[in-house]
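Sequence, structure tokens passed on for absentees:
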Amino acid sequence: MEGESDNDLRLSALCKSLGSLWLASDVVEVSTEIPPTKRQECNLTLFGKLFSKPNVNFQAFTNTMKKAWKTESVACLQKESGLFSFVFQSEEDKDRILKTGPWSFTNNILVLKQCEPEIPEHCYEFSCYAFWVQMGGILPGWFREDVVADLAERMGRVVEIQMEANGNGPHKAGKVRVELDLNSPLKSGAILDIGTKKLWMKFKYK
């Protein structure tokens, strides 16, 4: 369109008038190797964001999370409203908290992300999070890891699958950790098509 073409020309002219926004002397070269101490610091750090209500009492929040996590060995810092960093003293504590989530504060989910040394803090995506989901209703003859995975993929990206005993009986139950889009409605189940049978498989979120 003519209007769009005019805008493109004006933008090109503006960029040309600005010239170079940086000089060669502005470039700082650093080693491509990350020091082991900084990598370890990142390994011990989680970033967390409250998904729906960012404005909370910071002291009450940190006290509640330390109690829920059963640890005092974590340093909490509020980076901005609703965004936090948690630095643990051991990777065992950090991994346990990541694996046993999700966690929440006053019914507001806390989305946790592992700190990565190559990613800027403002570039983390907090709209997806991994939940444990129980699979119910799968017939014993079709209770296999590939079937559980196919069902779980209807919810989101599969992170982990656990096939475990269902009580004291001979049958097993499937539990899957799935990364879900928090902006999308939760799926209540999926249909398992077995030849002439179509069975409803119920998803139970942990």
